[in-house]
Structure formats: C-alpha cells, structure tokens
Amino acid sequence: MDQWKASKESVKAYDLYMRHQRDGGRLQTESILRSRVDLGCALEIGPGPGYEGLEWLMETEDTTLIGLDISEEMVALARKNARDYGLEKRAEYRVGDAGKIPYAKGRFDAVFSINSLHEWAQPIKVFDEIERVLRPGGKYLICDLRRDMNPLIKYFSILCRSRTQKEIRNGFICSVDASYTLQETTDLLAETKLEGWKAEQSSQNIIISGRKEYNAFSAAYAAPARMMPLLLRT
Description:
Layout lengths: L7 H16 L5 H6 L6 E5 L5 H8 L5 E6 L2 H14 L5 E5 L12 E7 L8 H11 E12 L5 H11 L4 H13 L3 H8 L7 E5 L3 E7 L4 H7 L5 H6 L1
Parallel strand pairs: 1-2, 1-4, 2-3, 4-5
Antiparallel strand pairs: 5-7, 6-7
C-alpha cells in the first residue's frame, strides 16, 4: 500500500473511509460481477481492508477468495473484517508481493484488483504473474483511477473527501497523480504476457478486463474436477 497508509492511525482512517464507501454503494462490486468474475477461487491483489473482496463473496455462491497485500497492517485488518463478515472460511489474506505471486501456475479461476495498479512498482511483472496464476479461460479485472480524469470531476472528488481526514484527501491526490492514462495503460499491456486484454476508460477510471485464452478441448481434458463447471460456463 502507499506510505500514507502505513501508520496504525492512517490504516484505521482508511478502513473507516472504505467502510463509508461500502455503505454508500461506491465500491466496485458491480463492476467485478459485470466482468463475469463470479465463480471459483479468485485472487485479489491489493485488497487493503478487504471490503471489495468481501462484498464480492457476499454476492456470489460457492466462491473463495485469497487476498495478497504488501502491507502487514492491511492484511491483519482484512482478516479481522473477514471474521466480522462471517467469511473467514471463504477468505484468506496473506502478505506478499504481486510481482512474485506465491502460488502455482493455473491456481486461480479469476483475478481482480481495485485501485492498486498505480502502486505496483513493476507492473509488467505483476501482469505477467496474473497470466501465470490464472487457469485457462480464467477472467480478470483491473480497475484504477485515471490521471487525466476531467479536472472538474477530480476537484469534486477532492471536495467530497475534504470532510474526511486530511491524509485520506492527500492520499487520493497522490493516487491520481501516480495513476495511468489509457494510452499509457495500453502501451504497458502490450509489453506483457497477459492474454485477451481490453483496456477502456470511464470518467474516473481505467478498466482492464479479459480472459486467459485456452483450447476448450485440451483444457477440459486436462482440467481438475473443480474447473469443469467453469469451463462449461466460459
């Protein structure tokens, strides 16, 4: 996570802010579901306090989630929030570097990440790792802020955050300034091993979605039992 989230006080502030985002219906849960990331075992990169993934679990059935975050404080908080949701048996959080995802090839049915792309020190490595750990046919969604959002929208977003802690407002500004434009994103993706990607933009966000390619017959022939319903659906 960003350095501004490192202290215990700022971690608590960010948790409260994200809880307000959740209660106000401003999380990206619907975007994740619209991308058809809604089955099997998903990897969430940079879950922070965990609300995005936990809400995703609440909206899906027979799913599990593994969250990977570089911050020990955020991982501890996400574990607590999973217990509060009653989802500790379906959600696992661990400290780790997304540039070296500590799981085997084809481990996950889906990967998603919300508002963390701008924090990746080596984004090409992370995208290559996403490709590696996805099963054939697995889907992914990466959503982040866009640096060139409309200045009026940026100003309004900052104004809305002026009622929260100063560090949250400053963190938002730093995140926007560190984020990518659509052209920069497509240039970056062109250098990766990630398959089937599509990059687009909304008024505030860059959205990367897609599916790892596979040969349906050979994938089905080699697939473990847990993958069969997913292969039939995709």
